[in-house]
Amino acid sequence: MTADLSQIVKAYDVRGVVPDQWDEPLAELFGAAFAQVTGADAIVIGHDMRPSSPGLSGAFARGAAGRGVDVTEIGLCSTDQLYYASGAFDLPGAMFTASHNPAQYNGIKMCRAGAAPVGQDTGLAEIRALAEQWLESGAPEPVPTPGTITQRETLDDYAAYLRSLVDLTSIRPLKVVVDAGNGMGGHTVPTVFAGLPIDLVPMYFELDGTFPNHEANPLDPKNIVDLQRRVREEGADIGIAFDGDADRCFVVDEHGDPVSPSAITALVAARELAKHGGKGTIIHNLITSWSVPEVVREHGGTPERTRVGHSFIKAEMARTGAIFGGEHSAHYYFKDFWNADTGMLAALHVLAALGGQEGPLSQLVAEYDRYVGSGEINSTVDDQKGRLAAIKSAYEGRDGVELDELDGLTVSSADWWFNVRPSNTEPLLRLNAEARDEATMAKIRDEVLAIIRA
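RESULT FIELD:
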């Protein structure tokens, strides 16, 4: 095919519509390029439940094997299960998934050995360049001795490893509703939760990459309505929703009310600090709540603020030796998990915290949810730079107001803060605001939106 790789090779992964933007022959070239760029003797590959995933991952495996690389296929898995395999086997890995995107999409998340991320600056640009070269000049000649392709089951080992990181032996019985959104949580949750004192109420556990019930994106409020209703109907203690590749988890309390991912970040940070003797660095991106650095300091830790995006978080995790990192997008990163993100491990921490005391979840998380946030509000704009400049000039020089440009523009005072940052892939500005009370948050949110949308 004649593919425009600039449309599908993103900042952190490959993602596009199948077969319009990419197909199995191109996946085979990506496999060959991945093998060459990593220089590995062996790699591990997994895939999600999308109809196109087995064919694409198989083609990638053939491409890598054609360069002399031995391939271990772990088949159906969540993204964090692929990271587990990359870490446990110390091999580069490739996961075929388009996460929460609609059914016609697919993609590849790649990592080096030990689940170290592959992004534009860490190999993805070279992989794209090689694939483009071979698209023009023809595929590379196979090496004299191709690699082998073998299958290996990892689900039980993945589950056992996660369970070894969180003590769930003495929790009280809990009724837990889990919405897998027809994604990979339906594959991993039964094995991970097996034997725990949990009355599991499964929702949409059937693996179906056409997503017949709702999008597998729990950050969009409309996609957790079914979960919220079911938690209330069942009188459950907690509801958990996973995205399509089950690397993110979203939590609702016993009333069906959403629990902020910042509150989950703060709760898990406190638990990880306790596990590490009250010492350690915790990474948080700059749109997490003020609650996160406050809780980290109260529990003896050192908060470290970063840009939004998993490659920045993982780089800071490695640089600082951080024990945990969290993003407001419900990605959670653990030193004990090769600095990679795993929603399942975060979910186990929340269950351990809830089951280790007698109060309801709403009461438990109140300690970690201290401010009022706007959520992320997207606005389509023609001139991202011009709008950011207009916001900057509106707030620059105001008494008691500080500005920084670590990622977009962050403006803060004693009582509120907001961040506006441009999307890398769309003509959007993204606003997040937070304040000490609802009225102040609404005022600052509307003030900034008026400038963005002027």
